[in-house]
């Protein structure tokens, strides 16, 4: 299939999906237009999968707010901060110390919000940039946000990757859904990359999670139902720190990834089903 045929296939699929499903971006809710049925989101399904590392990260952020630092990676500034925080804490009364501990308990939430804000800026730039490349008459070219140097550097890494490769953008933020399995999601991008039809995802994390393998598997399931078959999956990791960019082809078995995603789908369904067996206090009664 040549590029023109792929473009037409994508456009036909996009129109069909938009006639069948509506997405509330503020509430992040997908609904089937025909009857208002709420479709489960791909990222919601991924939430079923255990993420044990998050509890260790949360604990680390808590003690960091109290002055802790990694002895292997710390520098003189970290040591000075430790002594400063120690001096502040030993002079506190009980109430002030309790408030300090309460703030430490919530430190990971504040850190996550800060990261999400920066990641959103990077994502939105890439979305607008790709849309402009596809149709400049409809979407103006975005400007690099220079007020945050780390974010600006992250965006430059993305632009450098594009310049170093032969990329023809086909779609950005395209909604997909599975009529068979009743879930929906939004693909970051589709493109012809170095002559290969590619399903792509953008991550701004400090390191890649295996969730992206299952996530792109879920997207592929939707596209397959619509008769679209990308030749590869590619994740672009554009870290918010402005360095460490990665462009990785996902080489795991696609069929197995799709089956595993559907297993999570069933677990999510089972979790919802189990709610029927709980009382008003959330106690399980069966």
Give a short summary of the structure.
This protein has 286 residues and is α+β, with helices and mostly antiparallel strands. It contains nine helices and eight strands.
CATH class (first level) name of the largest domain: Alpha Beta
* Parts with pLDDT < 50 across at least 5 consecutive residues: none
Note the gap between the termini: 54 Å
The number of domains is: 2
The assigned CATH architecture of the largest domain is: Alpha-Beta Complex
Silhouette: globular
Tell how many strands the DSSP assignment holds: 8
Write the CATH fold name of the largest domain.
Lambda Exonuclease, Chain A
Measured as a percent range, the helix fraction is 40-55%
One letter per element, helices H and strands E, the order comes to: HEEEHHHHHHEEEHEEH
What does the largest sheet look like?
Answer: 8 strands, mixed
| Mean pLDDT value | 92
Q: What's the total helix number?
A: 9
Main structural class: alpha+beta
Beta strand %: 15-25%
- Rg on CA atoms, Å: 22 Å
């Amino acid at each position: 299939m040549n590029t023109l045929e792929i473009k037409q296939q994508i456009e036909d699929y996009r129109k069909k999906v938009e006639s069948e499903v509506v997405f509330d971006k503020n509430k992040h809710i997908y609904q089937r237009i025909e009857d208002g049925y709420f479709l489960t989101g791909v990222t919601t399904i991924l939430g079923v999968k255990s993420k044990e590392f998050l509890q260790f990260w949360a604990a680390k952020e808590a003690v960091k707010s109290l002055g802790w630092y990694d002895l292997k990676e710390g520098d003189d500034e970290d040591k000075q901060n430790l002594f400063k925080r120690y001096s502040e804490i030993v002079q506190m009364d009980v109430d002030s110390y309790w408030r300090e501990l309460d703030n430490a308990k919530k430190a990971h939430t504040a850190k996550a919000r800060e990261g999400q804000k920066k990641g959103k800026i990077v994502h939105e730039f890439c979305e607008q940039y790709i849309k402009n490349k596809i149709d400049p008459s409809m979407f103006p070219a975005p400007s690099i946000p220079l007020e945050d140097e780390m974010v600006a550097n992250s965006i430059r890494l993305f632009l450098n990757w594009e310049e170093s490769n032969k990329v023809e953008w086909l779609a950005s933020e395209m909604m997909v859904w599975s009529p068979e399995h009743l879930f929906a999601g939004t693909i970051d991008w589709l493109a012809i990359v170095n002559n290969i039809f590619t399903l792509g995802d953008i991550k701004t994390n400090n390191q890649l999670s295996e969730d992206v393998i299952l996530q792109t598997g879920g997207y592929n399931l939707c596209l397959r139902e619509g008769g679209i078959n990308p030749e590869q999956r590619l994740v672009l990791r554009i870290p918010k720190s402005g360095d460490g960019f990665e462009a990785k082809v996902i080489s795991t078995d696609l069929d197995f990834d799709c089956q595993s995603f559907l297993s999570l789908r069933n677990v999510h369904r089972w979790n919802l089903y189990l709610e029927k067996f709980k009382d008003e206090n959330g106690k399980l009664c069966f």
